Amino acid sequence: MSKKTYQQSTEEIMLQVGSQFNGLSEKEVSKRLEENGLNQLKEKPKKSSFQLFIETFKDAMVIILLIVAVIQLLMGAHVESIVIFAVLLLNSFVSVIQTKKAEGSLDALKSLSAPDANVFREGKEKVVLAKELVVGDVVLLEAGDYIPADGRLLEVGSLKVDEGMLTGESVPVEKNLASINQTVPIGDQNNMVFSGTIVTYGRGRFVVTATGNDTEIGQVADLLEGTVEQKTPLQRGLDSFSKKLSLAILALSLVILGVQIFRILVHGSSGDMTADLLNAFMFAVAVAVAAIPEALQSIVTIVLSIGTKNMAKKQAIIRQLPAVETLGATSVVCTDKTGTLTQNKMTVMAYYLPNDKEEEVTDPNKWTSDFKQLMTISLLANDAAITETGEKIGDPTEIAFLDYSEKLTQPYREIRELYPRLQELPFDSDRKLMSTLHYMSEEHLLLTKGGPDIVLERSNRILVDGKVELLTEDMRMKIQEQNEAFSNRALRVLAFAYRPLENRSLVLEDEQELIFVGLMAMIDPPREEVKQAVSDARDAGIKTVMITGDHKTTAVAIAKEIGISTEGDLAFTGVELDALSEEELKENLERISVYARVSPENKIRIVRAWQEKGHVSAMTGDGVNDAPALKQADIGIAMGTGTDVAKDASAMILTDDNFASIISAVKVGRNVFDNIKKAIAYLFAGNLGAIIAILFALLMGWDNPFTALQLLFINLVNDSLPAIALGMEKAEPTIMKRAPRNPNEGIFSGNTLTSVTYRGLLIGLAVIIAQYLGMAQSPELGVAMAFSTLIWSRTLQTLPARSNSQTALKAGLFSNKMVMIAIVVCSSLYGVTLIPGIRQIFSIPTNFSLNEIIISVALAISATVLMEVTKLGIKAVKRINQKTQVNPINE
After folding, report:
1. Residue 268 class from Cβ within 10 Å (0-12 exposed, 13-18 middle, 19+ buried)?
2. What's the gap between Cα 595 and its chain centre?
3. Is 413 helix (H, G, I), strand (E, B) or coil?
4. Rounded Cα distance, 569 and 547, in Å
5. For residues 161 and 169, what is the distance between their CA atoms, to the nearest angstrom?
6. What residues contact 346, with CB distance under 8 A and at least 6 apart?
7. 656: which of 48, 501, 556, 690 lies 20 to 30 Å off by Cα?
8. Per-residue model confidence (pLDDT) at position 494
9. How many Cα atoms sit within 13 Å of 764 on the Cβ side?
10. Residue 448: what are its φ and ψ, rounded to 5°?
11. What does the alpha-carbon distance between residue 248 and residue 788 come to, in Å, rounded to a whole number?
């Protein structure tokens, strides 16, 4: 097995890339550019807007509507056909716009590329366009530079690089030249630099080993290109239902047409064969118009938009509308640690001083001399600062010491003004120490901070109760034990020491014979509200999984503290995950609560594993490395402070980067799906009522009870407002106590289908009675009464449609004011159809009077009351059954 780049020596790398320390020749650069192309990301061609537009017409229900519209046009029903075409075009334009908005992840990735680079070519330093870099180029780095390509380091000078966009960790990585023998993730490849990351400190030189799509960021781009966005459970449900409904409508229309033609052929026509055949055809078309809820797509979009507005109040910005509903079906949340579960702010959690009880004292005048010395060193041997505006500049660890001092009411600036820095020995990754020189207590003191083992090794004395004593082996043992105790709690530990100096010229040899003072331990602590949010998620049947670029020990400690990891749970690193077969991963998946030091490929694999088990997965992230998994997940959730790449690949953005906001958004998502089901059930109950009336009229040989225009008016205008109002219903109290719904369940799962069928039968019966009563005077009056009763029945049906379990009175008539407003508006719209000049368009004869209106309203009210009374009856039966089960009769 060949060595990876970071496992080879610099000499092996230079030989492999065909370069030397003073760079390539211009001739060689030109040759390599011609062979390998520019150092930039390449992407596959995207579908044009026209292609996307055409694809929107592949839906089965859309095809049926197109056929109906064409038939209407050929039959001379121009108004009806124009209305249908307008609705279809509007839905198509909305779909194309949403798809185009979702594109852009690769454009954001490209924007991370450095514009130029400082290189060595033919032994001379020069600035070139970064896209003209080739493998083998030697590049110079300084603080503030964007790294333009992947490469192996040849030289470092206190070099630190922010690789958060690839690893997800905010602490800059200290770089070195040492080869690494074992296989390690990107976060531990300390002798490498990667395209798109930023130099935060020091300087360096590296040889380019990969450009363009061969870089780590290029591999992320390939993953993004190869990852297909998942359809939401609602989209899958509606697609499946749409196909089944379309086939049923087509079959029903053909059967009706066949029956009509058979009657004409067997019994003969009424006089004009062509007219009879045309009427038969229009009867079949009317069934299709009645059955298809033309406004369904628009209503679902509007209800989702209402959910989007509600989620924005919960700090969740929705980029893709279907994501609102997807959250409601989420059963697994794969979340990042840093900044989402934690505060993304290193915080001092504990300290250790020999013979000093740890106790935070907020009055600096009451500090012990030892604690005062510890705090003084932590503030002076420190390059961080807080500006007048509150901006914190510097290493997160050093900022933690400033925050801790401010928390204890000791302004750090006072200490720095009292003891100004005279000289310094900057931090070095080899020494793992930083020292500064100050004049204090009438002498020059060297103040040092660094790794506990290094500081302890260089100390021969110790400060105890204000006195300097010899550092005994027993004391060393106690300090090492305390350091291990802190480390076992996943705390990051630094040690502090000092020594008097006679000379004022600092050299590295001065960092010897130190006086040990103490230890300070830090961690990025969990957010206060996260523990409760994790508990709430568990109550709602949602599994929380931590996926982080941090070390395993730290990740597990945080996971246990906030309740993600419990007894018997497992934790894996990315390398350990790679060693698992698919069967082993599937077997252990539900027990693994923590993944640490993971790669972008690991994240996608984890998400897919959950999806293959039938779960709806949400994935959070903020870095470039998260983007492919965000796209793969059923719902990708980007952090508001994250990269544009992550945001573009996601369906939702958290403005406060807070895990608790995800759980709040899940509640909104569940309510949105409940309300969408209520709206869909409302629409189909009304349509079923119309179909029942049409079929009954066909069987009885009556005239078609509705014209196509009447049905389009009800479907597109009258039904829209009540359906939207149902989308504003408040959440049920137990909404977060039930398990996530099965993503494969149909739109009419549970008792929804029963409810729709029952309400449809009552509406159909009311319409049949109305047509029968009207036909006693004339067929035209029968049609007018059927239309009138249908529109009133569907409008008043809004009240029982608010809930399958409780009546409108129990839910509160005015708890959703939009329902009452919708009923009033629909009543007014019905009044418009009676205006002279307009009533003729809707086939309402002049002899249709107030008496007929009262009969229609009475029939509609009767159907509505029966719907509500039935709920009470079902509830009473359930209550009796429950009592019987709890208190069985003893025979």
Report:
1. exposed
2. 19
3. helix
4. 14
5. 11
6. 171, 396, 397, 399, 400, 492, 522, 523, 524
7. 556
8. 96
9. 21
10. -130, 140
11. 27
> Alpha-carbon distance 350 to 359, whole Å?
9
Cβ pair 320, 98 in contact under 8 A: yes
Q: What is the pLDDT of residues 452-490, one digit of tens each?
A: 999 999 999 999 999 999 999 999 999 999 999 998 888
Average pLDDT, the chain: 85
Cross-strand pairs, 125: 120
Residues 525-564 have pLDDT tens digits of: 998 889 999 999 999 999 999 998 888 888 898 999 999 9
Q: Structure tokens of 623?
A: 């870095």
**Res 111 pLDDT > 60:** no
- Token reading at 684: 């189909």
Give one DSSP letter per residue of 727-788, joined into a string.
TTPPPPTTTTSSPPPPTTS-TTTTTHHHHHHHHHHHHHHHHHHHHHHHHTT-HHHHHHHHHH
State how far the alpha carbon of 108 is from the alpha carbons of 5, 217, 218, 220, 227, in Å.
27, 12, 12, 12, 16
| Tokens coding 610 | 């959950």
Round to whole Å and give the CA distance between 241 and 834: 36
How much is the pLDDT for 261? 82
Tokens for 885, please give them.
Answer: 């089960």
Q: Known catalytic residues?
A: 336
* Token couple for 695: 């079929």
For helices 752-775 and 659-700, give the axis angle rounded to 10 degrees: 30
Write down the pLDDT at residue 385: 92
Give the pair of three-digit tokens for residue 212.
């363009």
CA gyration radius, the chain:
36
Look at residues 822, 683, 767, 798 and name the one whose alpha carbon lies nearest to residue 294: 683
**Among the listed residues 112, 120, 182, the one whose alpha carbon sits nearest the alpha carbon of residue 147:** 112
State mean pLDDT over 609-625: 88
* Angstrom distance (rounded) from CA 310 to CA 313: 5
Residues 6+ apart with CB under 8 A from 628: 220, 223, 224, 227, 600, 603, 604, 649
For residues 847-862, average pLDDT: 95
The span from the CA of 758 to the CA of 198, in Å, is 64
Tokens for 636, please give them. 């990708």
Name the token pair of 795. Answer: 């409008």
**Single-letter residue type at 792:** W
pLDDT of residue 2: 65
pLDDT in tens, 321-362: 777 778 888 999 999 887 788 888 899 999 999 876 667 778
Which residue has tokens 């907020």?
Answer: 362
Would you say residue 812 has pLDDT above 90?
no
Contact 769, 859 (CB under 8 A): yes
Whether residue 803 contacts residue 681, with contact meaning beta carbons closer than 8 Å, is answered with no
Which residue type, as a one-letter code, is found at position 173? V
Dump pLDDT digits (tens) for 504-514: 788 899 999 99
- Give just the sign of the alpha carbon dihedral 270, 275, 280, 286: negative
Report which residue type is found at 333: V
With beta carbons less than 8 A apart as the criterion, state whether 321 and 300 touch: no
CA angle 752/757/763 to nearest 5° reads 125
Helix (H, G, I), strand (E, B), or coil: what is residue 405? helix
- pTM (two decimals): 0.69
